[in-house]
């Protein structure tokens, strides 16, 4: 009996002759068995060279070398059959809809607090809560225009939501580039398999952003706002702007006049209506948030409050993707939609609660402990993979600041066969689909599959040495 769900084989084995291959992988697996090791290695090298030439890299903060790295790309895809994707899509649309309703509610009537479902202090003391947004109406009541929801598979193959990313979710460029690379390397696979396309995502994103322009704007000007070329996700910012055919701007390229945002161009100022911003709230407007920010636009918040520009995602959206709010999302779905959640949360212990803290402290070697404001795989303890010293260090952190942490059981994440130095071996994966909210809620069939390349590791983040795979959704 395997200890984890294997995406390709029903018996948990890797790519071997005795493995019982799952039906939706059979066509690919038959093809794979006919490929020589030299052929696959040559294709891998070609992919690395192409990615480096194109500049598909990311920077790691705190890296002493200060160099950009390639995100390792694996040529064995993660394949999901149509029926499973339909269930995932239904659950994701439901979840993001409820999250948008929650953010609108806490900045307006606060019915979920009045109903006693979420304690008021969980909102007001949240580092991502922005009182400046209280009572402000945003276009179409949409706050999380782009959401990246992290999905994991565990147990006998059940899907769980691990995290909601609603601030500035990244990774979609790698989803698109991974697909382009697979089509370039192995065109015969796409002729033989009915794989749903993802290359229309930039068009969907642009349509989505245009649909939430301020009222009365029929032909909105959309821009992508980046902190600059030294940001770890700069490649993605430039990529999406280029793919959508819109300008990539920094804060210094924009200015406020007559309660309107303008972009400096060679032909003079041009009004900007929708800003797809890829920097955090704190840096958006030095007059409203951090006065030392040189990345933002002075006066931007006043234009936003007046409803004369749309920011995607909205200011203050992060309150809904904080890990201290995550345990309440199933209750949000029931409260706002009167529906049962389609996708389950991972069971979560809130360390601010006395009993949950006691359980966590007594079971640290078996649990995953996360900072409520942490991201990128940082600020967390994976108990089974930690030393006694690391566990004791986290114990002291928990005792000192219990409300800063949550704990979860260590899930046996599903694994997918992956090319590693020793050959083909199972490695643990997750999935980040991207959900777009505007006049409608839409998504391309697929997402970014991230893979933990170190044997036994459950941390898939690129900043922690993880890689990526193409994600195939099979059409019927």
From TrEMBL:
Domain Circularly permuted ATP-grasp type: 77-452
Gene3D superfamilies: 3.30.1490.270, 3.40.50.11290
Entry protein name: Circularly permuted type 2 ATP-grasp protein
PANTHER family reported in the protein's UniProt record: BLR5612 PROTEIN, SLL1039 PROTEIN
Pfam assignment, any one: CP_ATPgrasp_2
